[in-house]
Each structure stands twice: as structure tokens, then as C-alpha cells.
Design goal:
The chain is of the alpha+beta class. Helix content is 19%, strand content 32%. It contains 12 helices and 38 strands. Strands 6, 7, 8, 9, 11, 12, 14, 15, 19 and 20 form a 10-stranded antiparallel sheet that branches. The protein has an 8-stranded parallel beta barrel with strand order 21-22-23-26-27-28-29-30, surrounded by 5 helices. Strand 29, helix 10 and strand 30 form a beta-alpha-beta unit. Helix 3 runs parallel beside helix 4 and helix 6 packs parallel to helix 7. The longest helix is centred in the C-terminal third of the chain and has 23 residues. It is globular, with a radius of gyration of 27 Å. The two termini are 42 Å apart. It binds (2R,3S,4R,5S)-2-(hydroxymethyl)piperidine-3,4,5-triol.
Amino acid sequence: MGINYNKETGIFHLKFRDVSYVMQLFRNKYLVHLYWGSKIEGKGFGHLLRVSERAFSPNPDKEDRSYSLDTLPLEYPAYGNTDFRIPAFSVEQENGSLVTDLTYHSHRIFEGKLQLEGLPSTYVEGQEEATTLEIILNDAVTGLKLILTYTVFEAFNCMTRHVKFINGGTQRLSLEKALSVSCDFHSSDYNFLQLSGAWARERHIYRRPLTYGLQSIESRRGMSSHQQNPFFALLSKEATEDSGDVYGFSLVYSGNFMAGVEVDQFDGARAFMGINPSGFRWALEPGAEFQTPEVVMTHSSKGLGDLSRNYHTLYRTRLCRGNYRDQCRPILINNWEATYFDFNSEKILDIAKQASEVGIELMVLDDGWFGQRNHDRCSLGDWVENPTKFTKGLKGLAEEINALGMQFGLWFEPEMVSPDSDLYRQHPDWCIHIEDREPSESRNQLVLDLSRDEVCEALIDQISQVLSNIPIAYVKWDCNRNLTEIGSPSLPYDRQQETAHRYVLGLYKVMETITLRFPEVLFESCSGGGGRFDPGMLYYMPQAWTSDDTDAIERLKIQYGTSIVYPASTMGAHVSEVPNHQVHRTSSLETRGNVAMMGNFGYEIDITKLSERDVHNIKAQVHKYKDIRELVQFGNLYRLKNPFEGNEGAWMYVSGDKHQAVILFAKVLAKPNEPFERIKLKGLKPELEYHLLGGEGVYGGDYLMKVGLNVPVLLGDFQSTIWRLKVLME
Ligand code: DGJ
């Protein structure tokens, strides 16, 4: 069992392979946090909790001035009852009060993990993989009951947490805030690491020291967003890629979120994460329940690299689902940057023919195949093929592509509707809006109101029809705007603030139904690139389009930043034309290929317009990727050089048995008269001998990690190289 409870001390000890997480019942009443860090087997935790009378910290027990909730490390703090720090939740009562006081009621420990209802979450394949603790806390005055759920994935060093609110009283309650996690740290001597950016520069790494007061990241866009990924880490100040204490928080949710830390007067740090209380309220009638999304927390004392590998292994194997979870992903070619809206079946077939000759496996037809969609001003919602574009129909095109030995994939943007569409003309009330206000357009489109069942059902029917009638092996599920004027006329006035969360629940229901109905289809999510690259989406779709920015040099940072949480198997990475369409940079086909090969590889290029030499080189790239894709997609990542800190970026993937490795080294700008450089590798077995494939030499694992590989002289800007290492069996 990964969880022990000691009745005498009231201590809960959650045990992972290398980590301990410890809580205690304080005076058999309040659930307090004692420890989260490297595993400790011995006794002593009881001494961690120290209390003493503090000025301006009020006392819940007037007979006892020795403690206040304001100074106790709490597991799930309430609002208004002597703790002045940021609360994890608040609930409005019929008398207008927001105050509650949570005390321990009971708990249970069991093997395995229960799935969340209607929300994505990590899962087990056998009960022995995890242990779960449910702690019930009550507010005596309102009858509000909270179930705090902790699941220990022992072997992964990962824990999941979520909370269920149950209105066990007789009055109507209104949840104003319902975070998934709160976690009090004894010290605030940490750096806060976040993945932030914008469209075309998603998930850049920012690291800053904690300071007094609140520091947080949020999305209020209705989606997890390009701007802030629903993740942060706390790093001890000296922590590096390979050493030091690091703590990760990752929210399995795709909507508005809030996450951050408050540093208090005694230098403690309260970390928190969950649905953003801004634009959220949830009515709880007597007997009703509300369940928060799940947060995945992990700790490592071996630095950021180990934290990432914890997330990668868990997310790749126990969050992603479906036929493709453990399958190598096909190499695709997508026509978006090749043609934009200007295509017909002949053009697509020409691209597919040339692509099939170089070994590309999947032809993806992007935006523009339906309705009157020759530009981005119409037709979203009308998922019926445009007959003028396809001489033999879309099905005919798909079959012709199949006859080339390639699979066929199709783009959708299911959640959206263009005001200029048949769907909108029939159902103008089906979009997210507030009745007396004009809804704002973004990219000339509105968002369908997925808080309504009939809208979800209609969407499921429409998409299912296309997927049933055409041999489609892959779907790109796009989403090109955020939510504004959020409201749903189908909800009463006092439930309007539920719309944003209900939208996400509706989306999850639609994706659950469609992905289960078409298990053979590979789904890739997208939101103008990586605007919704989050664990919630990965539960339904095992890969995501990492960014609309396909420039290899920009991708060094984007893919490196994304790798902090997300495994390579989830990251779409394509070679595109030069000058690059987003940043107008020209880099070599080799570098574009090398960087894209570090994820789920593909092309966004008009291959019919390339020179013979380029086509020949693409053939070689495709061949090479087929050789390394298992290693990239399912290997373990070791980051070697941080492109945010210098002129170079490098990382490597090592196979589970450590017999193979592939290494990318990329240099941004050329330097004159450069010194010779060596790069030390990681994650190999010191005692094994590795052959450098396609090069000269055999190297000991210890040599490669302690001395390193010689970096070739790379002349010119934007240069790169890939090495492959293999242990050759006698
Ligand atoms: C945004 C996506 O990220 C692009 O790849 C492309 O599919 C366009 N949308 C199409 O509108």
C-alpha cells in the first residue's frame, strides 16, 4: 500500500518510489500539511508541526491562543475562519456569508483509482498501480461536505488530487471558488517556473524567485491558452536540469484556470491551482455535487529533467488513451502552408503522389474543404464537402490517396460557427452569447454553445457522418478563437457564470463520444497551433499541433519549453517552406528536418514545387525518421543545452533499455573562429559501449557522459546535427 495512516499520531504518509507526502490531523480536527519531498521511512514527522501564539492571527478555539489557522500549513484552506491567506474555495450561503470552517469527518484508503465523471484524468490499468485516499471534511453550519481525493502513482512518483463538493445541507449554496489543489510549503526559498507566451511563441520558459504576496498565472479566455500553460513548477534556487528539489503542478483541464503561489508573513509559500474563480460560480442545490478537475503533482530531488520524465511517462502511458497510445505515429504531409484555401482535388492528389514516393504515410487536407470556405469568413459549422473542389468527391479523393498507399486525414474546427453559414442561419441562438449584446467575432467566427446538449448532439452527428462515410484515418481538431461575452440563454440568470465550465464539459463529452466511436482514427488537437496544448485535451487526443510557428529556430524554444511537461509523442513538428511563413527566416532543409524529427514528424510544404535535390533529401529524412521514431516518441528525454540561455539548443532521447540514443544539437548564429566544442550526454549506461552510427567510433557510456561528443564545426547560421548511438549486440 502506498498510503499509511497512523491512528495515534493522525499522520497520513503517502509513499512513492522516491518521495513522501505527509499530512496530519491537527487536534483531530484540521487537516494540515507536514512534508513533501525525498522519501523518508523513519519516524519524526510529528515534530514538524510547530505552533505558537502570533499577534494578529486569531484563534478558532478561544480557550487556546497557541494556534491559528493563519499559521498552520493547511491542506485545503477555507475562507474567513482565521486564515488570511488565499483560500482554496469559498461558498456563498443564503444569508450572504462566504465563511466556512472545515473539520475532519472520516477517511478511506483503497487500491486503484476512481475515474472522474465527465472530466479527463489519469487512470490505472491494474488496481495495484495506485493507491487512493479520500478524506471527508465538513462544515458543520452549512452541511457542506468535501471529499479530498489523493491518488498515489507509486512507481511514477506522481500524485493526483481533486475535490468533490457535496451540499449535504438544506439551503442552496453557491460555489464562488473551487480550486483543485492547495499545498503549503514551509519555505518560500524557491523559483517559480512557468510556460508562457503568445500565438506562435507558446510555452517559453520563465523562471523567477518567489517574493512576498501573490504571484500567479491565469487564463480567462475560456481555453487553457497560448499565453499561459496550466502548469508551474517550484524549484529550489540552486536546482538545475539534473539536481535540486523541484515540484510540479499540472492541471488536467482545458478551460479557464488559475495557478500560483502566495508567500506569507512567515516566509511560507501556499501553492494553488484549479478552475479560475474569475467568471465562475456554480449553484449547489441540496444534495448536488461539484467535482473539480484533477491536478497532477510530482516531486524530484534530481532536478527539472527528472520532473519532466515523471510527467512524460505518466502522461504517455496513463493519460493518453486509444489505439495510438503505444503506436508509432505516421509521418504526415499537411496542405495548409502549401496551398492555404487555394486547392482542388488535383492539387492535393499531386502533393500526395509526390509525398507517397518519398515514403510519407498520411495526407492531411486542412481548412477549406467544406461549405463555401475559400477564405476564413464563412462556412464553419457546415461540415459538408464543397463539390466544386473535388472532381470525384471528397470520398473519391480519399480513396485515390489510399490507392497510393497513404492514409487520408481531414481538418475540422467543430466548436465554431461562422455567422455566414447555414448552421448559423438555422440556429443563431446556438452560439455562446448574452441575449442583449452583440457577440464579438474573432477570425470572423463565433463559438458554439457546448453547454447545450442539443448543440453537442448535433455536432456529434455532423462529425460522425463525415467520419463514417469517408475513409479518414486522422483528424486535426482545430479551434481558432477564445470565448467572449460568455453566457448561455439556455441557463437561468443565476447559472450564467457556469457557462464557461459547462462549455468545457460539453466539449469533453463531444470528444469522448467521437473518439470512442472512431477508435481507429488518430486525433490531433490544435488551437491556432498550441493554444490548448494541455493534459485535458491529451486524454482524448494523444497528440497536439505544437505551434503555428514552424520555423526551426523558433521551434527550438517552443519544443524545449513544451518538453518540460509534455512527451515528444504528443508534439506535432513539421518541416515547412522557406522563407518561413511566420518569421520569414530561411534555414536549411537539414535543420528544419532535424528539429522537426524531435517530435511527431511531418511536412507542411508544397512538395511538388521543390527541386529534385530537396525531394531526394526529404526522402532521406523520411527514411531516417522511420528509423528513429520509436526512440523519439517513446524514449526518455534528456535536455542538454537550453536554447533560452544561449546560442545553442540540444536534447536527446534514450531508449528504455538504454541501448539506443538520438541527439539533436542546434546552433542559432554562427560565430567567427569558433573554439571546438564538446557536448556531454546523459541517461546512458556507463558500462555499455555505444557505436556512433554513420560516423566513426565506439564510445563508452561513461566517456560520453563525462567527456562528451565532439561537435562538428557548423558553419553558417541556423545549423544543426543529429547523432545516433547504438549498442551493437555481439
Ligand atoms: C490554425 C492551425 O493551427 C493551422 O495549422 C491551420 O489548420 C489553420 N488553423 C487553418 O485555418
